[in-house]
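help with this.
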Amino acid sequence: MDRPPINASKTEWRGWARGRQAKLPDVSQAVCQQLRVFLRSQGAAVVLAYRALPGEVDVSALGADFTLLAPRAHFRPTPRLTLHAWESATEPSRFGVLQPPLGTPEIGQAAVDAVLLPGLAFDVAGVRLGYGGGFYDRLLVGWPVLTVGVVAGAMLLPALPREAHDLPVKWLASEAGVHSARRA
């Protein structure tokens, strides 16, 4: 399946990425090893992670080395993410990922040293092809935290479509290592 042209819709890109991602081997262990080394080098202790969907890199193994937090998606009154203890993520969200139940105590952004972002794909400039909700873009606005896009190397692309609200990550992690995103 050929990659869509850069001017194709994000819907087309998501369809292509899901198809390609489904055929990839699991690289979670190798990516976690790269992240362990990188996050330690950055002095990170508390990391906002994510509960992996099928095909995503599973970062849960990092819980042995760092304090992991899990996000919860809220849709009203405004779509947003809140941060919670990792082990509280016991309820399936509408996306099918485990998240903390409503009413679980929140943890403030000031406690977080790094944010690991999942994605269908990333490009070398740090642009993320997410699932279309904009939750991470809203969370990261004005938050000067270390951001790391986590992806299998086969889903790290030269370019992805980008909209004005898309916030690129600063770092990209794959089984090949953790590298600074290239800025245009």
